[in-house]
Write a structure and sequence with these properties.
Layout lengths: L1 E4 L1 E4 L2 E9 L16 H23 L5 H14 L2 H14 L3 H17 L4 H22 L2 H6 L5 E5 L4 H6 L5 E6 L7 H8 L4 E3 L13 E5 L4 E4 L3 H22 L15 E6 L5 H6 L5 E5 L13 H15 L3 E5 L25 H7 L1 H14 L4 E6 L5 H20 L9 E6 L2 H5 L1 H5 L4 E4 L1 H9 L17 H16 L4 E3 L7 H9 L4 E5 H12 L3 H12 L4 H15 L7
Parallel strand pairs: 3-4, 4-5, 5-6, 9-10, 9-16, 10-11, 11-12, 12-13, 13-14, 14-15, 15-16
Antiparallel strand pairs: 1-8, 2-6, 3-7, 7-8
Helix pairs in contact: 1-2, 1-5, 2-5, 3-4, 4-5, 11-13, 13-14, 19-20, 19-21
The structure holds phosphoenolpyruvate and magnesium ion (MG).
Phosphoenolpyruvate (PEP) binds next to strand 10 and helix 17.
């Protein structure tokens, strides 16, 4: 038996047979071959070509928008282009390299030529060629997620790494639990596994290297442990753990109908974060006061083509209707960073600081306006609030607000009805926005603090990198001061302020955040009842003095220790980050 300790990322226990997955990078790898390997490599290339075509054909038979169908058909023609195929095959023969390297090199040459022309149409074709080559490289590598799109039996996935888009396309009905060698608790993969309720341990530092397909494994997402080939005693001990955990869940369920009021009557709204429509039921089932964050970019990961205005309208309407009359805050697409979507030409050297969220949207207004129109059309079906991600200053905020007004004018001209009172807010997740919160507060109806990114950018620590996870500290005085300042600036300008990062779901943070004066906390539905239970057992006066006290401390270590002890004195059971 081997035991790996990691980060407890999503609660619960999963027992079953391992399915080992090694993440295929999107980039081509270079390998030289011998001349007698050429035939084999050509064969591999042709098989990949056929499988990439099959995949496109499958997508083309689905009910998709006209413009998406046109893109698929263009890609299909490229995969059948005899000139392109010939060049790749010649490259393999002449340079004696593997097929994925040949595809990458030939495509890069073509892309460079096309991009150097003055013809806009040809330059757009360059993006299509790059996209097609990624499908081909994917097919050559026999990308792991393909085998996980349809699973015949239940498995526990043991992987080195996963992209959010990979997790999306997997057959999650058969994935009992997940163990990843890397990752951080605030990474998007972690957020998704919690949303999908898959017990998960991150940062095991090598579990995937010691296990083979079919071997018995247990993932304990509550305690952050992975057991490879567990013995009988450990299995029994874990069964007991599991029973205790279930009893705790039953206890929490009693909180569903109750309001989130402190013992002295102060109310904090608890809302749910969702990524897909399938999570709306869970949000309602835990008694959420609305949706505080709908990460709309995940709609763009569902399929190869961008969702049409009609598709987006249908999804937004569905969520608004299901939650009505409670409010739904839909965040405009936050693509980029660790949420890559193929086919959009986002290929960044430094994606976290790069072309993402509103930066992407403002330069791809064609995509952004489609979303804004869909949102406006859907607004008459419930209580919509719109929120913009990654705003770094007033110019960006002015630009998105201006565009939103422009799209509203367009709708008026076309007699498309929409709610004239849609509340508009901005996320505060970039330090410059936090420092200018007083300026931004005058332009919007509400703030929502995105601590996942605010911590990342304030401490300059990649939220998904397990090597520096020790630096990712929500209780860093720099982070707490920043949150306090944002709340003060919002309230001085009479606007409410929510917090929708993973801190909101951490029971260890709940009392502190309420005491700092947040009006709302928005989190994954699975944490909401635990946070409600905690807030219902303390007074607002106590929470405020806890906040005042720790804001006078000088290090995250002192603050963490102090809060841990404070919570232990009052509660016998709670789980922490
Ligand atoms: C955040 O940054 O805190 C946030 C809620 O947005 P995301 O996690 O999607 O970046
Ligand atoms: Mg963010």
């Amino acid at each position: 038996m081997r035991i790996f300790k990691g980060i407890a990322a999503s609660e619960g226990l999963a027992k079953g047979k391992a399915l080992v997955h090694h993440h295929a990078s999107m980039e081509a790898e270079k390998q030289h071959i011998l001349s007698d390997g050429v035939a084999g490599e050509l064969e591999k290339f042709r098989t990949a070509l056929a499988s990439a075509k099959r995949l496109l054909e499958e997508h083309n038979t689905k009910d998709i928008a006209k413009d998406s169908r046109e893109i698929l058909e263009t890609h299909m023609l490229m995969l059948e282009d005899p000139d392109y195929i010939q060049q790749i095959e010649d490259y393999i023969r002449t340079n004696l390299v593997c097929s994925q390297w040949a595809v990458d090199s030939v495509t890069t040459n073509m892309v460079n030529l096309l991009e150097a022309t003055d013809d806009e149409l040809l330059r757009e074709r360059a993006i299509d060629f790059r996209d097609v080559s990624l499908h081909l490289i994917d097919a050559i590598k026999g990308k792991g997620e393909r085998r996980m799109e349809h699973l015949d039996e239940d498995v526990v996935l043991i992987a080195d790494a996963l992209m959010p888009s990979e997790l999306f396309s997997m057959d999650k009905t058969h994935i009992l639990g997940i163990s990843l060698d890397g990752g951080g608790r605030a990474s998007h993969v972690a957020i998704l596994v919690r949303a999908f309720n898959i017990p998960t341990v991150l940062a095991t530092n090598g579990a995937s290297k010691t296990v083979h397909d079919g071997e018995e494994v247990i993932v304990d997402g509550t305690y952050g442990e992975v057991f490879i080939r567990p013995d009988h005693t450990v299995s029994q001990m874990l069964d007991e753990r599991f029973n205790l955990w279930q009893e705790h869940e039953v206890e929490l369920h009693k909180m569903v109908e109750l309001p989130t009021n402190t013992t002295d009557g102060h109310s904090v709204l608890l809302k749910a974060n969702i990524q897909t429509t399938s999570e709306v039921d869970a949000a309602k089932a835990c008694g959420a006061s609305g949706i505080g964050l709908f990460r709309s970019e995940f709609l763009f990961m569902e399929s190869l083509e961008n969702p049409s205005e009609e598709r987006q309208f249908t999804v937004y309407r569905q969520v608004l209707e299901a939650m009505a009359p409670k409010p739904v805050t839909i965040r405009t697409i936050d693509i980029g960073g660790d949420k890559m979507v193929s086919g959009l030409g986002i290929d960044e050297k430094n994606p976290i600081l790069g072309w993402r969220a509103v930066r992407f949207c403002l330069s791809r207004k064609d995509i952004f306006t489609v979303q804004l129109r869909a949102l406006l059309r859907a607004s008459v079906y419930g209580k919509l609030q719109v929120m913009f991600p990654m705003i770094s200053g007033v110019e960006e905020l002015n630009a998105v607000l201006h565009l939103f007004e422009h799209v509203k004018d367009e709708c008026r001209r076309e007699s498309i009805p929409f709610d004239p009172d849609i509340k508009v807010g901005t996320m505060i997740e970039v330090p410059s926005a936090a420092l200018c919160a007083d300026i931004l507060a005058k332009k919007v109806d509400f703030f929502s603090i995105g601590t996942n990114d605010l911590i990342q950018y304030t401490i300059a620590v990649d939220r998904g990198n397990e090597k520096i996870a020790y630096l990712y500290q929500p209780f860093h005085p720099g982070v707490l001061r920043s949150i306090r300042m944002i709340i003060q600036m919002a309230h001085q300008n009479q606007i409410p302020v929510s917090l929708c990062g993973e801190m909101a779901s951490d029971p260890l943070c709940s009392v502190l955040l309420a005491g700092m004066g947040l009006d709302e906390l928005s989190m994954g539905s699975q944490s909401l009842l635990q946070v409600r239970k905690i807030l219902r057992s303390v007074s607002y006066e106590e929470a405020k003095s806890l906040a005042d006290h720790v804001l006078g401390m000088d290090s995250y270590l002192t603050i963490t220790t102090y809060i841990r002890e404070w919570m232990h004195d009052r509660f016998d059971h709670f789980t922490t980050i």
